[in-house]
Write a structure and sequence with these properties.
The structure is a homodimer. By secondary structure, chain A is of the alpha+beta class. Chain A has a single domain, classed as Beta-lactamase (3-Layer(aba) Sandwich). Chain A contains 14 helices and twelve strands. In chain A, the strands form three sheets. In chain A, strands 1, 2, 3, 8, 9, 10, 11 and 12 form an eight-stranded antiparallel beta sheet that branches. In chain A, strands 4-7 form a two-stranded antiparallel ribbon. In chain A, strands 5-6 form a two-stranded antiparallel ribbon. The longest helix of chain A is centred in the middle third of the chain and has 15 residues. Chain A starts with a strand and ends in a 7-residue tail after the last strand. The interface between A and B is large, with 48 and 48 residues. Chains A, B: It holds the Pfam family Asparaginase_II. Chains A, B: This is Asparaginase. Chains A, B: InterPro entries: Asparaginase_II.
Chain lengths: ~325, ~325
């Protein structure tokens, strides 16, 4: 088993203070590994990075069209959103359109990471609810598929038709049988894959094979993510800022415990990486580095600089340190 | 150079999802390394874990007694507090007693991590200020020493008498010349040491040599931390919960980027550890493991179980995974 490689360094003054190791893979649409660091066969949970795969059955089943979902809905289905008004207002309308309510969600409540939304709740004396959960768009997609299928209310159970469809699409796209599954933070099952399998799935999203239902669904989801970077995360979020910096030509997505994926339609490439320790700052820096290397992100764009280098500021705004990619990984 | 060792594992379902590596050292008061994992000579910034060393000149100079500081003040000087009312009210009174104001701080503003304090600010339409900075107790100590010395207002500059005194005490206690310094999040300098040097300093705090000013100051600071675990961090904080679980017999302190130290007076031992990737959850688990191994923390105490094992819950409260210490590190 190949060991993980140093990927991201945190410097303070002249001392390397902290360091992150990881695995990363770039695949083409034939499934061929174009480039890899660490162990491309390392088995991981993709967590939220695979929401676009989980959303494939929503379209392929006909549910998305039956309920008139737009590209905004599809972007939200792929999102880990910040619970800002632009997210929760749309999710509420989506639920209304389904004739369902927040109580039909099974994702659990979460404090919005959007500052304004959180402060508005506090001022109103209200508690965060399930609509603020960063996965409420994904769960709206699950509920839409579930209504279309006419299945039972516990749509997050691993043997429920919604999750069986999700697993099937996931395994077809990764080209692997999921060896493990875990319960995600939103209580839905999350299936395992190798890092190469995840990159392969992203390459297939980037350059779908043929013109069938899978190809069309893949294309619609990637286009939705690229068209609505603000819905996929939110203001100040890495997915949003980096997708904007790439002018809507590349879809990227973060997952908990430091997973990141990228879908490059023009290049027909998919990327996936996992930082071993789960440190999100390193996953953001590493994916930014890969995107620069493959020519889709300008290393001098302010968003690229922010996620690649920092700076790391004190609470008075003094420059105390910076990040950089480790030798042996991508050099930008 | 010895490599860092696996210390803490994050499991979800039956898959090892993330892993943290680190360095750890246990020293006795003679400076002898009793036990070590990874590289005991690894040079690190102790960050906030060394606040009790930075507070030594406050007492040794006579400033603490000249301004009537109690053990509560001393505990706050060693604290990374959560900005709760029990912290900020005391810091405000301390400033009042010095005839100074929040504007004399140079630590910068910080959102209180205490939920109630943060929500009270939001409801009042107020912004967090410097008093909410987790280091405002340390900076009150700096201001007290500074007033006693009659030095200039920029007490956080590295060549200011307050920081020169802090560096001198730090180097005497670690037994090392600091090779590097960095600017901490609170804009004060933070000096480097090896992990062994930091553990050595903690052992000297645990079992001071002789009855001189250093010994007395060390004893007062350790007693203050042990007497006021709620002031050292706050409700729900690892330092507070684990110190309470040990019945006030051991002082422990966290530092940013996953440093942790422990002072064991009855055993005459000091501990220090650094998780390479800066992951705080792992530093908390690792110090809890060391404290269990050395017989001062009951592995079955709820606080010990929380920091050693989790559980890791979904947002609906489902048990999704757990933490455990890696093979080759402490087994509890």
């Amino acid at each position: 088993m190949t060991q993980p490689v140093p990927m991201v360094e945190i410097w303070r003054g002249d001392l390397l203070e902290s360091q992150h190791l990881g695995h990363a893979v770039v695949c083409d649409a034939s499934g061929k590994v174009v480039e890899a660091w660490g162990d491309d066969e390392k088995v991981i949970y993709p967590r939220s990075s695979c929401k676009m795969l989980q959303a494939l059955p929503l379209i392929e089943s006909g549910a998305a069209d039956a309920y008139g979902l737009t590209s905004e809905h599809l972007a939200l289905a792929c999102a880990s959103h910040q619970g800002a008004a632009i997210h929760t207002d749309r999710v509420q309308l989506w639920l209304d359109g389904l004739g369902l309510s927040v109580d039909d969600f099974r994702c659990g409540p979460q404090k919005p990471s959007d500052k304004d939304a959180h402060e508005a709740l506090v001022r109103a004396g209200k508690q965060p609810c399930q609509i603020h959960n960063n996965c409420s768009g994904k769960h709206s997609g699950f509920l839409t598929l579930n209504k279309h299928l006419g299945a039972g209310s516990e749509y997050i159970e691993v043997d429920h038709p919604v999750q069986r469809a999700s697993r099937e699409a996931f395994e077809e796209m990764t080209g692997e049988t999921a060896e493990y599954y875990g319960i995600d933070g939103c209580s839905a099952p999350n299936f395992s894959t190798s890092v190469a399998g995840l990159a392969r799935a992203m390459a297939k999203m980037a350059k779908p094979d043929g013109t069938g239902a899978r190809a069309q669904a893949s294309k619609r989801l990637v286009e939705a993510m690229c068209a609505h970077p603000d819905l996929v995360a939110g203001e100040g979020g890495a997915c949003t800022e980096l997708m904007r910096a790439m002018g809507g030509k590349v879809a990227i997505k973060t997952g908990a415990e430091a997973v990141y994926v990228a879908i490059l339609p023009e290049q027909g490439l998919g990327m996936a990486l996992k930082i071993v320790d789960g440190g999100t700052r390193a996953a953001e820096a590493a994916i930014a580095g890969l995107l620069v290397k493959y020519g889709v992100l300008d290393a001098n764009h302010p968003a690229a600089r922010k996620y690649l280098h920092g700076p790391i500021l004190s609470r008075r705004g003094l420059n105390t340190g910076h990040m950089r990619l480790s030798e042996g990984f991508v050099q930008v």
